Protein 1
Amino acid sequence: MSDIKVFKDIYEQNKIKSYSTYFKNFTKNERKKALIDSLSFDHYNTVETIFLTFPQLWKDFSKEDWVDLLKTSIVNIQNLNIDSRIVNSSNLSFLRLLYSYLNVNSFSILSDTGLSDSLLKKCYEYGDKYSSLFYKDENLIKEELEDFSNISFKKLKQISESLLTEGFDKIESSPADLSSKMSKLI
Amino acid sequence: MCFHHKPKGKRKTGDVIIDDVAVAKNLTDKEYVKFINDATEEATKKGMTLEGYLQEIAELLSKLKKYKPIKNKFPNEALPKNGKFVNYEIKDGLIILENNIKTVNSIDYVITLDGKLLLGKKHHFLGNKLDVFAAGDLKIVNGYIKKLSNASGHYFPNIKESENFSKIFKLMNLNLEKAWMETFWEESGRVFNKSLKIN
């Protein structure tokens, strides 16, 4: 069965729980491909659902893996409009998910991706336009993990610490600060 | 015109009126028969008489009257081909989706002007291009609504409109005791959001 079929079942049939062990034996590259596939749905929350429900897809990712994933998810984007419909920029979702759930500054590794200046500009515009969505209430995250994920909040913190050690920057202290930083980079 | 089954309310010029509230408007004969059949089915599911069920709808619509409808911002767009309805039932304030699914991270909803909560994919489709009382998405866990949002690209409910959503859901006897309200809005070209526990 393809990843797309699995995600269609999740998106269209709401069958999250049927696939709890589906990705168990996937190689790292297969898992990256699955995450990229999750971006193809035109609903802003589908990629977040996949990300939260299947942490086994990404929980052992190193900084290099995230650089690779960000690059692959963004490099082929054409005609990206950073407008009020977040679904129109779903290919940039991992920037937001890394930032909000793993509490690491996803923009700080963009320079390692080799993306063109025009694509980097789109990323910064996204960070500026949606800066508020890059921050989540810690209690809400805990509830979300409890409801949908088999990863604990403590484990999430450990992953975050590890990624910071590997070279991610810390997140900006507020949405306004993130927005201001992004504005300067655009 | 003659209808075999006449509930307590009377039918005038294609409307079904209960206690001066139109629970259905501008129906053709065929639509009227469908309306009565659907209502009978719903009433049976709820263990109610048809009259009791229609009375309940009339009371709900009467309470909803104070809320201003939310405009579809793109009413002329074609309906999306990937729109779909998801059937559900409400038991003791909890939502059970078709196939007995009780947990879903995100499902689109609208509350129509005739007081129906419709669940599925794509607000424009669910609302059939028309104005609604509420639109966004729901997170449901074990039947409980855990998140209620105003995230809809077609209706884009503003902060003021969205403040009514939890009240409207409560009017529909939905359990919000574990729910958060996530509100999105746009200001100076930026999109903002906030999440608050519903009291």
Protein 2
Amino acid sequence: MSGKFGTALMFVGLMALAWVSYEPSATRSPASLGPSVKAKSFALSKGDVLKHTKKLRGPLSAKVALRGAKPEEPGDTFVLVGEILSESNLSEVTYEFNLPADVELINGVVKGKIQNIVANEPREIELTLKQNAFDNKQIHLVASGSKGGMIFADSAQFNTLLEEQFRTSQKELLESTEQNAPRYKVFH
Amino acid sequence: MFPLIFRFILGLFSLMLAAGCSSGTTSSGGNTGGRVSPTYQGPSETAYCSASVSYSSPITISGTAQYVRREPYSSGATGGLGSSSTSDPSYPATAKPIRYAEVRVTDASGNVSQCAETNASGAFSFTLPNNGSNYTVSINSRADNSYVKASVLGAPESNTFYSLTTSVTATTSTNIGTLTAPANGTTLGAAFHILDRIVDANDYLRAQVGTCSFTGCSSFTVAPKVTAYWEKGYNPNGYFGSSSGLSFYLPSYSRLFILGGVNGDTESSDTDHFDPSVILHEYGHFLEDVVFKTDSPGGSHNGNKVIDPRLAWSEGWGNFFQAAVLYGAAATPYYTDTTGNVDGTTSLIFRTNLETAAIGSDYPNYSGEGNFREFSVTRMLWDAIDSNGDTQFTATDGVSGKFPEIWAALTKSTYGLKDSTFAFRNVGHVHLAQKWLETYNGGSDWTTIRNVERHTASTADYAQYVTTGACAAVSITPATVSGDTGSLSTSDLFRNNDFYHLKISSAGSNTITLEYSDADASGTEADIDLYVYNSTARFGVASDMIGYSRQQPDGSAASSQSETVTASFAAGDYLINVNVYTGGSLGGAVNYSLKLNGSTLCQANLVPP
């Protein structure tokens, strides 16, 4: 059986068991994991699929995404959006796109500063680019900031032709990790 | 409506089928580059070449092995990773000996003809038969000797090591010169750099605690074997479906995964193979997993946040350990992580001073909050070994050269972190263990360095051990905290939560009750809830909860409230969480009591006071 089929069966199983767990009851057991009795409920999280450490990351995160159609052949223009998000207020963030040879800037600013970053409010930088090559090109964005003596940054990568392939690969590898994780937990 | 039993059978049947799909190890297709899972066992690693062979009338082949590493650099707020060239005028690379590594010599058929190891200078020497045959000499990215036990391999799916190779013809004794693993191109130098930093860590521990004088403290010789996986251009976060650069340690597997780049790129993407801070930090996680004991739940951390004290301890220890290995006692220590290198786009991805707290750098705002902040843990540990006397919060660091006390607190099986009665281990347990050393075993007084970082010298604020008895109620005052949206994920673990360690000795049904009342019986009544977690106890994670109760109070400050969890408990350790619900009106201070099957739970000692 394929991994996807197994995943689907797993999902059906979990839903059915969840159905059991959430049987409405007039006399709610205090220890059950049933619906909250708070006026405003709050979510419980699922947690990571596998227990592991995580590398220290500062409050900044950078992403690069395509807006509109991707370039199909040399000469095609396309629009990239860099998104910078911070978990805390920052007075200033410096950003820089690294454009490889054969990727030409048509419009936008590849290097600059963004002032007064507010926590959890993403800021965008839009670039219009032209690819002058047949093969995949990697575009990088680095966003840097500092606070309280800490210096931090985040980097992101965009692949002009292979981005979808890389994302599909990551998704499949995550599924494989889940299937092989010895402590795969059922989410109640 | 389907009968409950039918639903249960359907669910169980589907899960069994799914389990059948995923039994053993499975690959999810051909789009993962042959990767399966970080837990994948993979083929057995080729046996270590350790048996030296004697030949009659032999010739002797000698030489030296070195690797080149890029060096992190910084100046003020700027910095990055330097050149791959040792002659670069601005950011030169460094050539270092490949120490204590396996040397494998094979004949034209691939059969092993000789085994040897490099020494502390990277030099090697071995004999071969004087037969005019050609041999391949491989200096491999692994070691299994009294100095270090480590393998740097490509991936769990292949379990192959890296080799720096050359050919020799066995006609006369000769010195084949210096073999060099470069920092660019194949980037073979990165594999040997990872191995070399693990040697540094073992050297440091031998120097500090080769002989540990405290009762029950383990004297260090060499750490158990670790496997570090690294591949040029590969991001291990792919295993978790993310493109964000990640190095990590996998507990219980003795496996480090070191970031080698992203989607084949090493020049402008985040890499960690030339970041000693990251390599040693992750090796610190290995030590806490294998040499002493960790209860860290894992998870994200940004270096400036109140977090689960188990995570704060684990990450704080890793940050400290890298500084201890890299910096002298009089130096100003840093944690430094770079992205890219000067051949592409480079910058500092993280850099912070580990000596001085500043607002915005995990600064503890309240007494006791330091136990909940990773860099506060790091700085406190650094203050225990450094020779600087920094002052903060009217306290001056008066402790120095106490790594052996840290090691004793971590490795002792009784009243140390390896004590099996401990659970939910955090820096509070380390303080308890160190205080025992101070009181009973000739340890030093750490009061000043605890005060410098606003640490509580016990587990009072997290995982306080409780047993049934008679005691007064406990008070908690709801706090308004910036960023708290009323959800568990934004709840301040220090100010709006209390945590207790309950040990259940025999399996059975138990009822835990939280009874509380407004402290002054007037005004708005606070709302506090009860959660009971298993030993994993990831805060807010449903699958780790034995049960919870979060009733709304009746609105009358004059009346008492209660929350009750009744559940079946296996014998083991549980974490009871008293949580202030901040999604409504906060209310004032409340006094509360916890009860187990009607008997009051009271603070008890895991370590003699």
